[in-house]
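Shall we go through a protein fold together, starting from nothing but its sequence? Label the sequence line and the structure token line clearly, so we can match residues to local backbone shapes. Would you write everything just below, so we can both look at the same thing?
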Amino acid sequence: MRLKAIATSCFLFCFTYLFSIAALHAQEAKEEPSNAEKLVVGVAGNEPFVFSKNSSTKGIAIEIWEDMAKKKSWDYTYKTSDNVEDALYALNKGELDVVVGPISITSQRLEYMRFSQPFYNSSLAIVSRVDELTLWQKVKPLFSIKLLFAVGIFLIILAIVGALLWLAERKKSPEQFPSKIADGIGTGMWLAIVTMSTTGYGDKAPITLWGRIIAGSWMIISIIFATSMVAGIASTLTLSSLGTSTYANIEQLSGRKVATIAASPSETFLKEYKAKITGVDNLMEAMSKLKNKEVDAVVYDRPQLLYYMKNHKDEDLFIAKAEYFKQGYGFAFPEDSKLIYEVNRTLLEHAESLETLDIVLHYLDKDE
């Protein structure tokens, strides 16, 4: 009986172990798609990551995906969408297994989909025209708030000096400095101006000790003040005459007309800086508006802008060095997708073997 019980226990243990192994293998088989299963791959985005159907060039994202699919022996078919948002909507409805393209990984999108690790790190950049400045644009800096504020302070200081000269001279020299406050301070300001400019007409001059002390002190102070002020105005005029209509940072776009792709992260970013946003469907439309002077600048993902400029060197365009809203590009999946682990692992292998870098350098300049 005892041997029979031991034999029964051993049988049950072996059966349970074999059943568990079988279940585990079945689960793993479900997690990775079968070779016979055909994946529906959504394609969306702009050059240089995705090219149109009739183009012989594939693009960075497509080439990386096809390298991975070849290594994993995945069978797939492409389904092209007009824009990224349409592709992500189809993914969310269950019509696609994955979306391939320059898909920005954002916290908002993570609420209803999943992403692979980034295969490219991007950022937003500003492109503007290189136009010669008009006469008004050259002299406009002279009417800035800062300069007007400085002139206001100068007039206040001039009035104070004029009042001090009048107080010191009004009793000893009433013929030069009238007793009336307005006339007397005005005469004092006139004396301060001709002293500052070293004109010295000789029509007015202090005769009292305190008047000469005030005038002498003002001479020293005015030399420093006038020199700094003239140098500042001269440098402003020089820089504005040499300048162009380009934009170097995002703060300069406040109140300006800026084109960007509608519903993209760049649109949300521009709203924070109070730019006048013009939404477009694609980058070519945005650059066309910039060329026709319908907008002042274009803000979009840096690699797409760089690729456009690389292929349109005849257009006078300037891309700012400043980078904003750095983000990664990845492949998008449904929330319950079983592909993510294998895609991430293959992406790492692809990057470690420098295959990803080779593809990127084929489309973008090495310096970028």
Observations:
- The chain is about 50% helix and 15% strand.
- The two ends are 80 Å apart (CA to CA).
- Residues 1-8, 10-31 have pLDDT under 50 and may be disordered.
- The domain at 35-121+328-363 is CATH 3.40.190.10 (D-Maltodextrin-Binding Protein; domain 2).
